Amino acid sequence: MMYIYFICFIFFVPLAAQFTVIGPDQPVTAIVGEDTVLPCHLSPRMSAENMEVRWFRSEFTSFVHLYQHGQDQYGQQMPEYHGRTEFLKAGIMDGNVALKIVNVRQSDEGKYRCFVQDGVFYEEAVLELKVEASGSAPQISVEGYQDGGIQMVCQLAGWYPEPEVLWRDRSGQLLSSSTKTKSKDGRGLFEIKSSIIITESSNQNLSCSIRNAYFNLEKEPSTFYISGEIQTCSLVGPDHPVTAIVGEEIVLPCHLSPRMSAEKMEMTWFRSQISPFVHHYSDGKDQYGLQMPEFQGRTELLKDGLLNGSVALRILSIRPSDEGQYHCLVLDGIFYEEALLDLKVAGLGSVPLISVERHQDGGIWVVCQSADWYPEAEVLWRDLSGRHLPSFSETTSQGENSLFETETALIVTELSNQKLSCCIRNTVLNQEKESAVYIAGQSPSKPHTELSTPRKKTKHRKKRTETSVVDIS
Question: CB 3.0 to 4.6 Å from 117: which of 122, 154, 314, 409, for a disulfide?
Answer without folding.
Answer: 122
